[in-house]
């Protein structure tokens, strides 16, 4: 096993480690021993032969990954499976999959017996750089993304980079959407680093932000950079656009909007597009989706305090990235209208 990098997430009432590197999944038995866990439910869409041995009695709970399965019905089915597996509050759940799996299983763990330990084994780049870290769990409603959720921090996260070797190109690109936006929220330009170091840098940034603001009361808003439009694109396309693809477009839009508001100069605006393009990510809106639809979906964003007073975005500016409320909808529509439109990226 090559050297595993460790990033500590230090919170007021709960600390845990994120382990990043080739073979990180092999740490699972030691992690569970340290947690004092006697039994686990291993929730995953992977074939059982590909799952790590947790070193304690376990029950495999099969899942279907993907946004369409990120629902309250899935949460109920997982909790019923936990009952069938005989899990008690002294046991644990292992979420082994992409970001939708860690989100949905994390919420099930938060609700089962009013809270049971969860260990994340993220298998996609998107989940390793973002979704598995920070304790946000949620499922979708037909009206919007991540509208039902809870804060429930994992007990450990094992980011085994070996999982990434067989990912389809489009899945990798989705993860790069989160890495690209990190350049504008404090991580700097990560393009010169190898993939493991990009993951470490992204997780280190998120850990530092979450340590200062676990529950989105202030600084944690910066992690939503590009996400307001990104979530709207996902919902408007019925999730035909992947999360990272949509966030990439949202990042370009955030630069354009900040420029139109006079918060940044045109060089900084151009830097947003250039950063996103350099990763091979889309910089256009989905074709066939009216601007009015995107604006309506953005009104439902959780950051907004008063939908009648305009929209709320996380934007770059002279004081750095911050939450900007009461942005006029007509201005937002105008900026969206300036973006080209096209088809969703392909796997080719």
Key features of this structure:
alpha/beta; 348 residues; 11 helices; globular; seven-stranded mixed beta sheet; two-stranded antiparallel ribbon
What can you tell me about this protein's structure?
It is a single chain. The protein is of the alpha/beta class and 348 residues long. It is built from 11 helices and 13 strands. The strands form 4 sheets. It has a 7-stranded mixed sheet with strand order 1-2-9-6-5-3-4, with helices on both faces. A hairpin with a 2-residue loop joins strand 7 (136-141) and strand 8 (144-151). Helix 3 (99-111) packs across helix 4.
How do the helices and strands line up, and which of them pair or pack?
Blueprint: E1 5-10, E2 15-21, H1 28-35, E3 40-44, E4 58-62, H2 72-84, E5 92-97, H3 99-111, E6 117-122, H4 125-131, E7 136-141, E8 144-151, E9 156-160, H5 169-182, H6 195-212, H7 227-236, H8 243-260, H9 266-278, E10 285-286, H10 291-299, E11 311-315, E12 322-327, H11 329-338, E13 341-342
Parallel strand pairs: 2-9, 3-4, 3-5, 5-6, 6-9, 10-13
Antiparallel strand pairs: 1-2, 7-8, 11-12
In which order are the strands of the major sheet placed? 1-2-9-6-5-3-4
Structural class: alpha/beta
Give the ordered list of helices and strands. Answer: EEHEEHEHEHEEEHHHHHEHEEHE
Q: How much of the polypeptide forms β-strand, as a percent range?
A: 15-25%
Number of helices: 11
């Amino acid at each position: 096993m090559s050297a595993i990098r460790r990033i500590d997430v230090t919170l007021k009432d709960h600390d845990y480690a994120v382990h990043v590197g080739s073979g990180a999944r092999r740490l699972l038995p030691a992690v569970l021993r340290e947690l004092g866990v006697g039994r686990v439910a291993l929730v995953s869409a992977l074939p059982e032969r590909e799952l790590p041995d947790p070193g304690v009695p376990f029950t495999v709970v099969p899942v279907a990954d993907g946004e369409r399965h990120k629902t309250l019905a899935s949460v109920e089915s997982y909790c019923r499976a936990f009952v069938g597996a005989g899990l008690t509050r002294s046991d644990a759940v292992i979420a082994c999959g992409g970001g939708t799996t860690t989100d949905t299983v994390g919420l099930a763990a938060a609700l089962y017996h009013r809270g049971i330990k969860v260990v994340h084994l993220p298998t996609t780049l998107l989940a390793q750089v973002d979704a598995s870290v920070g304790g946000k769990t949620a499922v979708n409603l037909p009206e919007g993304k991540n509208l039902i959720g809870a804060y429930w921090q994992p007990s450990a996260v094992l980011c085994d980079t070996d999982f990434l070797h067989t990912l389809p190109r489009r899945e990798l690109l989705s993860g790069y959407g989160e890495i690209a936006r990190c350049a504008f929220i404090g991580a700097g330009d990560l393009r010169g680093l190898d993939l493991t170091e990009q993951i470490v840098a992204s997780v280190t940034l998120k850990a530092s932000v979450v340590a200062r603001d676990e529950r989105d009361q202030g600084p944690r808003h910066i992690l939503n950079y590009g996400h307001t439009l990104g979530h709207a694109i996902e919902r408007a396309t019925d999730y035909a656009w992947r999360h990272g693809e949509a966030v990439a477009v949202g990042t370009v839009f955030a630069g354009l909007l900040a420029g139109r508001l006079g918060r940044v100069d045109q060089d900084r605006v151009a830097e947003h597009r250039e950063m996103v393009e350099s990763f091979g990510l889309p910089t256009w809106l989905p074709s066939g989706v009216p601007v009015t639809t995107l604006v309506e979906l953005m009104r439902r964003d959780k950051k907004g305090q008063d939908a009648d007073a305009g929209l709320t975005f996380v934007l770059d500016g002279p004081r750095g990235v911050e939450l900007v409320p009461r942005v006029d909808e007509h201005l937002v529509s105008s900026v969206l209208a300036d973006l080209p439109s096209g088809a969703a990226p392909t796997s080719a």
